[in-house]
Amino acid sequence: MVELDDLDKKIIAILQTDGRTPFSRLAQALHVSESTIYLRIKKLREAGILKGFSAIIDYRALGKNSLAYVLVKTSPRQHQRVLKVLSNIDNIYEIYDVTGEYQILLRILAENRVKLGEIVNRVRRVNGVREVYVLYVLNVVKEERAVRA
User: Fold this and answer.
1) Which of 6, 88, 123, 136 is most buried by a 10 A CB count?
2) Going along the chain, which residue ranges are E strands?
3) How confident is the model over 73-84, as a mean pLDDT?
């Protein structure tokens, strides 16, 4: 694990707010040189802390109005294969291998409840899936992407 100092943490905080912030503006805001910013960001990328820069999308504005979290129980011998098959299904945006009664947690976004139901049924039909439990999101109360360093 890389030790982060206050400057690293401030750089991360600014980039999480706006990943397009120019090095010159970062340098000015943090009272350091652009070369210092360049070297710090390079170090953070090499350490795997900064994986890249991407846009934060409002999925609802793109017509993805149904969000669900789905718990999946698998047959132990087919667990890895199930993970691989699920990875190739469109509209499954996140897959977590978890502990507990269910072994997999999915985050699914779809245009509507009908489409969501079709995706869930496709998950149910995957060979090795024993049980599926759907948590349909009624209202998003808090959705935070930034991680505090």
Assistant:
1) 123
2) 66-74, 92-97, 104-110, 129-136
3) 97
